[in-house]
Amino acid sequence: MDINNQLLLPEYIKKISPYQSGKPINELAREFGIESASIVKLASNENSLGVSERVVSALSKAKDIIYRYPDANGFDLKLVLSEKYSIPVESIVLGNGSNDILELIAMTFLDGNSSAIYSEYSFAVYKIATQARGASHIEVPSSNYGHDLNLFYKSITDNSRLIFIANPNNPTGTFIKKSDLIVFLDSVYNNYGSKLIVVLDEAYTEYLDECDKFNSFSLIEKYPNLIVTRTFSKAYGLAGLRVGFSVSNPNIANFINRVRQPFNVNCFAQLAAIEALKDQDFLDKSCYLNKKEKERFYNFFDSLGFKYIPSFGNFILVNVGDSNKVNFELLKRGIIVRPVDNYNLSGWLRISIGNSLENSLFFDSLSDIVRLI
């Protein structure tokens, strides 16, 4: 007897498509008999420099905390975040990665009688988090692969409770200027107040050029319906430890914390995040390398005549034609990239920007594949 016919599940749960992560290195090694050490992973937008030595040193001396529960409220990490960004401790919520924060926000504000708004080409978790609460989806068509904020506003319905905006956007790498964002926030707050929450997902904000950066946390006082989320998984190199945070009006943070698991950020993640925040040199080197290597990608794709989207993150979306075949050929050569068919972007691959050697190996492999097909 098929158990699926027996399980009493809500229909909206049955319809969820699981999140597709980047293929793990060990999985590719098993499938193709490739040495793990020779595999290049450019699939998950991880920091190609690894992690700060300051973090490594701190964790190597912290074995005595393993058997203790972490601080459920993350006081020390919140204090460092508060001092660095000049934000109230009461405005901060910690998460097991910013993915956890997004889920908590959806859990707090959505139910079967509500809806969430997001772009057609945006982080898959927005859809999953919405669907897992039985809420309705309002998927807004993109403009040049980015957010069409005018259409976002026109798509608001009476039961809309959340608007998800990724800036820079994943997987397309597009960016919304502060001035355009302000116009949108004004319209939403002036007409809907705090009945409609705007979630600004800034997972890649550290990679922005100085001319594009702005202090989004300072906007929360004017727009108490705004939640800003950040992660330590990208530029800070802590993807394996899973730690992120949100900043919002303290009243909103209070409600999100009510549904948060009490020990959702482990001891090592909290300690690593604190040390990572103190190592500005590592962050600067990471951003410099990303900017330099990104130009190499642009030049390489131009030489092949491939269409790509200029990116404000640490990845590039490129149209390679037969993306399934190209991806398979890359895997055979020990190169892991990210197909994006699940985003309805057939023909495109998302490539994380690695270090100089990794990128050169990718360039050589793709050039070889292009000659063969």
Automatic annotation (TrEMBL):
CDD domains: AAT_like (cd00609). Homodimer. The lineage of its organism: Bacteria, Pseudomonadati, Pseudomonadota, Betaproteobacteria, Candidatus Kinetoplastidibacterium. It is an enzyme of class 2 (transferase). The gene is hisC. Its EC number is 2.6.1.9. GO terms for molecular function: histidinol-phosphate transaminase activity; pyridoxal phosphate binding. Pathway: Amino-acid biosynthesis; L-histidine biosynthesis; L-histidine from 5-phospho-alpha-D-ribose 1-diphosphate: step 7/9. Transmembrane segments: none annotated. It catalyses: L-histidinol phosphate + 2-oxoglutarate = 3-(imidazol-4-yl)-2-oxopropyl phosphate + L-glutamate. InterPro entries: Aminotrans_II_pyridoxalP_BS, Aminotransferase_I/II_large, HisP_aminotrans, HistidinolP_aminotransfase, PyrdxlP-dep_Trfase, PyrdxlP-dep_Trfase_major, PyrdxlP-dep_Trfase_small. It comes from Candidatus Kinetoplastidibacterium desouzai TCC079E. This is Histidinol-phosphate aminotransferase. Its cofactor is pyridoxal 5'-phosphate. GO terms for biological process: L-histidine biosynthetic process. Belongs to the class-II pyridoxal-phosphate-dependent aminotransferase family. Histidinol-phosphate aminotransferase subfamily.
